[in-house]
Amino acid sequence: MRPLYREFSVQAEFDAQYNPSLALSDPTAPGKHFVATAKRARAELPCTLDLPYGPTRDETLDIFPAEQPNAPVFVFIHGGYWRALSSKEFSGVALGLNAQGITTVVINYALCPRVTIDEIVRQTRAALAWTLRNIQLYGGDPTRVAIGGHSAGGHLTAMALQTEWAEDYGLPQDPFVAALPFSGLFDIEPLRFSYLQPQIQLDDGIIRRNSPAFSVRPCKTPLWITWGGAETSEFARQSEIYHQAWQAAGNRSELRAMPGANHFTVIAGLEDANSEVCNWLANKLRG
After folding, report:
1. DSSP readout, 17-48?
2. How do the pLDDT tens digits run along the chain, 287 residues long?
3. What is the pTM of this model?
């Protein structure tokens, strides 16, 4: 049988690589953890929720301010393959960062198939522009902003980094001091042949415009590109090709997996102030 993409010929092969729930004994466990941790964060930490950054109901973000004024900022972009979840399941990422004195912003966006990935990218950029222009009102330092995201959020992080911020938004061209995509999708073409296609509705144009591994621009932002050491070979490949493209453009990046982590536990370090992830971000944000 002729392959559809790389060595994969049938949908089951794509799904085995790109449906991380298939490897779990209890596919509901990650969601339960995220919800419980998010509720704890909103109960324990100061927060301002559902601030609008755009005109539609889904264009909101949540801010978890650090205790001290003029704090460094981390903006988190959630995953869910562009078609599930919201900012509210991921408030827990603020737990470790807040303890490090970092203000956390968690953005929300509309979901496929009601909107396209093109529109989700636009909303993500709008949320980041809003943060850069307004975070000082919430105790954050707009000159010390890092970004990161998980899975689809890793993809959206990469799309943010190729944005022409000066030309399109009137902001500094490279406004972020660091970026940390977790298990990102940087070549989205294989997803066209997966269980996701009926919802994300990829076509040639969407794939071309939204595969950031193939459109990296020179950028001063340093990256740690990571994924779970227990994830599939395709998730490792996704990170590897993005790292190669990022460096080929003359940019700086580290490529290191999270040992033993699966697709869902790869972001667990954000909940722990003493983790390597939180320490890496704190070091970058404090210069």
Report:
1. HH-GGGG-SSTTHHHHHHHHHHHHHHHHS--E
2. 788 999 999 999 999 999 999 999 999 999 999 999 999 999 999 999 999 999 999 999 999 999 999 999 999 999 999 999 999 999 999 999 999 999 999 999 999 999 999 999 999 999 999 999 999 999 999 999 999 999 999 999 999 999 999 999 999 999 999 999 999 999 999 999 999 999 999 999 999 999 999 999 999 999 999 999 999 999 999 999 999 999 999 999 999 999 999 999 999 999 999 999 999 999 999 87
3. 0.97
Supply the DSSP symbol for 285. Answer: H
From start to end of 119-213, where are the E strands?
Answer: 140-150, 178-182
CA angle 88, 133, 124 (to 5 degrees): 45
What domains sit in the chain, N to C, each tagged with a CATH number?
A: 11-286 (3.40.50.1820)
With b for 16 or more beta-carbon neighbours within 10 A and e for fewer, the 204-231 pattern comes to eebbeebbbbeebeebebbbbbbbbebb
Helix axis angle, 152-161 relative to 117-134, nearest 10°?
A: 60
Cis peptide before 175 (omega within 30 of 0): no
